[in-house]
Structures are given as structure tokens and as C-alpha cells.
Design a protein that fits this description.
Order of helices and strands: HHHEEH
Number of strands: 2
Strand order of the largest sheet: 1-2
Shape: elongated
Helix content: over 70%
Distance between the termini: 94 Å
Largest sheet: 2 strands, antiparallel
Length: 185
């Protein structure tokens, strides 16, 4: 065997090694993208469910007030924090987004603590109004987190709308009303 043959074998081995490495890297990247998309969708849906619970709270409150207590109910309890997927490999998502998602249950807890405090020192109507304001703010926040999760995975944003009900619009109206009331205080 001559040096020409050794050179041909070595160069073939190098090319085969490089192509194998490139193919494996490509497949791993595709697998990671699919996993990132899956985890983003699962957690985005969890955030959207939370927004629906907040919208239900606002809708029940509105129905109760307009029907003079015949339909719906007024509450001073925010919906519990959304359940995040325990198997999510969070390191595959942008760190700032992950931080905001992990902060969200803490925001919910703080908001509920504010409502509970007001309920203990003022009348229940004030606490129920604050609860509605916080539900609107948290509902909007959960929709924003859902959109950011979808965006991080390269998926399109989904707007929640129902029959005569635009969730973002209703949350925004309640939040603006709360802001206007706080300026009057």
C-alpha cells in the first residue's frame, strides 16, 4: 500500500467523519426544535387556561352585579397559579422568558395577599373589586406570557376570543378602570 492509498483512505475517513458529525448535529437541532415547540405549546396552553379562569371571574362578577345577585358570583379569590409542565427542559427557552414564567406564580400570590389584606381591613366590596382588577392584570399577563412562549418556539400567536367576548379587550378595560380609580383616590 502506497502513500497515495493511505492519503485517499484518510481523506475518505475525514469526510465520512465530518458528514456523520454534521448529520448528527442537524438531527439533534431538529429534535431540540420539536421539543422546544412541544414544551412551549404545553405551557402556553396552561397560561391561556389561567387567562380563561381570570375572564370567568370577571364575567361572573359582571353578571352578578347586573342581575342583582341572580346569576354569577362575586369573589375575593383569584384563580390558583397555572400548572406548569414538570418535564419541561426550561434551559431550551430564553432565560428572560423562563424567569418571567417562574415569577408569575409569585405575582399571583402577592396579588392574592393584597386582596386578603384589604378584605381584612375594609369591606368585602372593596376587596372583591381589587380581586377583579388583579384578575384582569394577571389575565393579561398570562396571555402575554403565552404569546412569548409561542414566539420563542417559532409558533404563531393565538388570540382568545369568544362569542361577544375579546379577552384582551376585557382585561384591558378592567385594568384601565382600575388605573382611573386609583388616580381618583
Amino acid at each position: 500500500m502506497g502513500w497515495d492509498q493511505v492519503g485517499a483512505i484518510l481523506s475518505s475517513a475525514l469526510v465520512a467523519t465530518f458528514l456523520t458529525w454534521a448529520l448528527n448535529a442537524y438531527q439533534e437541532r431538529k429534535r431540540n426544535a420539536r421539543s422546544r415547540s412541544y414544551w412551549a405549546v404545553v405551557n402556553a396552553l396552561s397560561m391561556q387556561r389561567y387567562a380563561l379562569l381570570c375572564a370567568d371571574l370577571l364575567s361572573d362578577r359582571g353578571n352578578c352585579i347586573t342581575s342583582h345577585g341572580q346569576i354569577g358570583e362575586v369573589t375575593a379569590s383569584l384563580p390558583p397559579a397555572p400548572d406548569l409542565d414538570k418535564d419541561t427542559e426550561w434551559q431550551m427557552l430564553p432565560a428572560e422568558l423562563v424567569g418571567d414564567i417562574f415569577q408569575f406564580p409569585i405575582e399571583i400570590r402577592r396579588a392574592q395577599d393584597e386582596v386578603n389584606f384589604l378584605h381584612s381591613v375594609a369591606d368585602s366590596e372593596e376587596a372583591e373589586l381589587l380581586c377583579a382588577d388583579k384578575a384582569a392584570m394577571l389575565g393579561m399577563r398570562s396571555l402575554d406570557l403565552s404569546a412569548r412562549l409561542r414566539s420563542a418556539a417559532g409558533l404563531k400567536r393565538i388570540e382568545l376570543t369568544g362569542v361577544n367576548w375579546d379577552y384582551r379587550d376585557q382585561f384591558s378595560k378592567q385594568t384601565k378602570d382600575a388605573s382611573r380609580r386609583s388616580r381618583l383616590d
